[in-house]
Amino acid sequence: MFDDDQYTQLKDGNRKQDVPNPKEVAQVYAWIYDHCSSYRISCYLMTGVWADPPINQRQQWERDWAAYINWFKAQLEVWEVQVTQLTTVVNEMNARADAEDALANAYEALADAKESRADAMEALADATEAWADAMVAWANEVMGWADEPEVDPAACIGG
Predict the structure, then answer these.
(1) Which UniProt keywords apply (predicted)?
(2) pTM of the full predicted structure?
């Protein structure tokens, strides 16, 4: 996992913290295990936690139940904190994903609006062209009336 020369790793952003060489740690643990008379003492020295051996050598009535239960309560509190932190991370990721979905939907709506605007501009151009054609036709008709003195333009207009 680590090289022999690798004693640091990045933690908490960019701060470097010393990390013991795993091979040296394993050698120290092996020495403690070989030279300590009690498995429980070696477990405590290695992990900082009083652990029972794989085969419980003490009788049930000798166990300090209050300390044992308190240790489990402490472990539960640690796990509850980790679950809370991970829940916060998951909620942030969900919010980010929802925001990205909303952004994608907004871009899609923008594209639809641009397409509708282009259609409306095309319809406006067609209507403007039709209006111009109608104005030309009306002007031609008015000019035609001007050339014919016997025709009363007021009768055609409705007057």
Answers:
(1) Coiled coil
(2) 0.37
